[in-house]
Specification:
The protein is α/β, with parallel strands linked by helices. The chain is built from eleven helices and 13 strands. It has a six-stranded mixed beta sheet with strand order 10-9-8-13-11-12, with helices on both faces. Strands 2-1-6-7 form a four-stranded parallel beta sheet, with helices on both faces. α5 packs antiparallel against α6.
Length: 292
């Protein structure tokens, strides 16, 4: 193996894929009613209980990951003679990428014969996870660390991350909607369509009235913008709304069926910011997919 591929738990990849593709994971943490939980690889996550607790008002918060956690993850690999390609959660929604850079720069001073490349995925959940899988693919094809990192930094702009939420109040809590906008949207049954843009931030892409209609809007965007879907692994992540996720997958397979679909429960860190009943779709589009 020419280099190690590492991502974080925001990448939302199932444990069987992480193991089979030899991808390491740096754990994020979250707090429920003030108690810290670490989202460890191999640990079973009860998504139904987690999002049910959020529905009845249990407080869930997150905090920025300090550079030391990256150091603790990276250093054993460097000591073993491995270079590292780290695929990070978007810098547009978290300071974690910056923490990884701090740790990487300090470690490369300590281990001058080793190299670490940190790639900002520009997204989260399976948008990030699909890039980590791509990194493993490039490694297994024999690409060098720098070749693989350069390819990822180009291809990340083709990753389309689009989603909707079940309750606008969670977005208001993150500062993405004013209180009046959130209230109005709830009263009129307006559902937002959000996406990751070319600057790696989350922006409003549209508004649709009704839950079924917003799911159909996500599928329509896939039909319009997906490139060579028959060759793609497409990602769908949901916050305890499996029936809606199944409906979305049915729509994806109707007109332009993807090669395969990876369906996951949202992991707790990102899922806590979106809230119960959020639904997201991740696929590869063309060079303008983040700007449309």
């Amino acid at each position: 193996m020419s280099f190690s591929v590492i991502t974080d738990t925001s990448a939302n990849l199932p444990n069987h894929l992480l193991r089979s593709r030899s991808i390491g994971v740096l754990p994020f943490s979250y707090f429920m009613n003030g108690k810290e939980y670490i989202d460890l690889e191999g640990q079973e996550f009860d998504a139904v209980s987690f999002f049910s607790a959020m529905r009845v008002g249990v407080s869930v918060t997150t905090s920025q990951i300090p550079p030391q956690r990256y150091t603790d993850c990276f250093e054993p690999l460097l000591k073993a003679g491995q270079d590292i390609l780290f695929v990070s959660m978007s810098s547009g929604i978290s300071g974690s990428y910056q923490s990884s850079l701090i740790a990487a720069n300090e470690l490369m001073e300590t281990y001058p014969d080793r190299k670490i490349r940190c790639v900002d995925s520009g997204t989260a959940s399976l948008g990030e996870g699909l890039q980590a899988l791509r990194a493993a693919e490039l490694r297994d094809e024999g690409k060098t660390l720098d070749e693989a990192a350069d390819i990822l930094e180009k291809e990340r702009y083709n990753v389309c991350s689009i989603f909707t939420v079940g309750d606008l109040q969670y977005l208001r809590g993150t500062g993405r909607l004013s209180g009046m906008a959130a209230l109005l949207g709830t009263m009129l049954n307006i559902k937002p369509v959000l996406k990751g843009d070319e600057t790696f931030h989350i922006v409003l892409a549209g508004k649709v009235r009704g839950r079924r209609q917003v799911i159909e809007n996500l599928a329509a965007r896939y039909d319009k913008y997906a490139v060579a879907p028959e060759q793609q692994l497409v990602g769908v992540a949901h916050c305890d709304c499996r029936a809606d996720a199944d409906y979305l997958i049915k729509l994806l397979r109707r007109n332009r069926p993807p090669k395969d679909v990876l369906l996951v429960d949202y992991e707790p860190v990102t899922g806590s910011h979106l809230g119960p009943d959020s639904l997201a779709l991740f696929f590869r589009g063309d060079d303008q997919v983040r700007t449309r």
